[in-house]
Amino acid sequence: MSAITLFIGGTRSGKSLCAERYAAQFELPVLYIATAELDDDDMELTIRIMDHQIRRPLSWTTFEQPTNLVMAMEHAPPGTVVLLDCFSLLAHNLLEAHRDDHALASAILAGELDAILAMTSERNLTLIIVTKELGMGLVTDRSEDCAYHNLLGLVNQRISAAADEVYLVIAGLPIELKHLAPAWHRA
């Protein structure tokens, strides 16, 4: 039976590490889809990517896929754990690729999410998604930032609605939110 779990939190909250620990508990094959791209001009990002690579078990299969995540998921046999890290970078990557057409980026992202959710169900996957929570941070007046915040906020809501479990990660501590929601919201 397929399952979807969301890990959401702010920058450096520990959400990726929590998601990795969660994935490891299943003792099943893990397909790790990384959406971050190396950037020769951003040494900090390069170090973060290397840290993620080093702490991943060697038995996990990794695909570095900045967009079109379904293409990587096609390599997941039924019953696999798929850890997607991270959806907020996917949104960023699509907005960067379609700077002049935010509506197109939004449509592509929605289509990608639909395909990911469908494949999760069809292949009986355990899907773990990592994403940023931007609603508690600063928002600038730049149109690009507003577009990113709006797009990611809506997509995060869709993912959490589809998820069986949602963990908010604060200071490295995962707090499960679905069971905290009032009964009228769960219905």
UniProtKB/TrEMBL annotation:
It is an enzyme of class 2 (transferase). It comes from Candidatus Chloroploca mongolica. Belongs to the CobU/CobP family. It catalyses: adenosylcob(III)inamide phosphate + GTP + H(+) = adenosylcob(III)inamide-GDP + diphosphate; adenosylcob(III)inamide + GTP = adenosylcob(III)inamide phosphate + GDP + H(+); adenosylcob(III)inamide + ATP = adenosylcob(III)inamide phosphate + ADP + H(+). Pathway: Cofactor biosynthesis; adenosylcobalamin biosynthesis; adenosylcobalamin from cob(II)yrinate a,c-diamide: step 5/7; Cofactor biosynthesis; adenosylcobalamin biosynthesis; adenosylcobalamin from cob(II)yrinate a,c-diamide: step 6/7. InterPro entries: CobU/CobP (IPR003203), P-loop_NTPase (IPR027417). Keywords: ATP-binding, Cobalamin biosynthesis, GTP-binding, Kinase, Nucleotide-binding, Nucleotidyltransferase, Transferase. Catalyzes ATP-dependent phosphorylation of adenosylcobinamide and addition of GMP to adenosylcobinamide phosphate. GO terms for molecular function: kinase activity; nucleotidyltransferase activity. It holds the Pfam family CobU. Gene3D superfamilies: P-loop containing nucleotide triphosphate hydrolases (3.40.50.300). This is Adenosylcobinamide kinase. Its EC number is 2.7.1.156, 2.7.7.62.
